[in-house]
Amino acid sequence: MKNIILIFLSLIFLVNVNSCSSESNKFHPDLMDEMHVCHENSNYDSTTILSALVGTYDWRYVRVAMSSYESDEDYNGWMLQLNNDGSFELNQNDTNTVLGNWFIEKSLASFQINTQPTIESVWGEILICDSYLMFFNSPLDGPDHLYQKR
User: Fold this and answer.
1) CA count, 13 A, side-chain hemisphere, 4
2) What's residue 40's pLDDT?
């Protein structure tokens, strides 16, 4: 009888954990859709966006418009640190760390980050809203990546 109760409680726990993670992932696409308006209302220029970008971010979500070659599991645990001196660190879930330099540059609609060496998860237009940073690359058929500032 104790084993049955233990199994039942374990199943309830697993269902709750999975439903929480599903709810979290449902939130991110909605947030990404709202990022454009929120970012435009902030009226960033080259100076204010630079200071807004400096900080440490945790990767949250990827959205791919035309294909499904990426998965959340590929990026879980990634941490991006953008330093004021133009250096960066990308920790890829403690399996690899990329160090380099970054700067912002004007793009067609706003700004984008250029990194040396290249980091694919930061390609695209920069959109900032509250503690979220999105790299909007879907107009070029690339993935949109969402990070959250710590």
Assistant:
1) 1
2) 79
Which residues of the chain fall below pLDDT 50? 3, 5-26
Q: Find out whether 91 and 100 touch, Cβ atoms under 8 Å.
A: no
Domain harbouring 132, CATH code: 2.40.128
Tokens of 94: 């403690």
126 belongs to a structural domain: yes
Q: What is the length of the chain?
A: 150
Q: What is the C-alpha to C-alpha distance for residues 49 and 126, in angstroms, rounded to an integer?
A: 9
Report d(CA 64, CA 26) in Å as an integer. Answer: 15
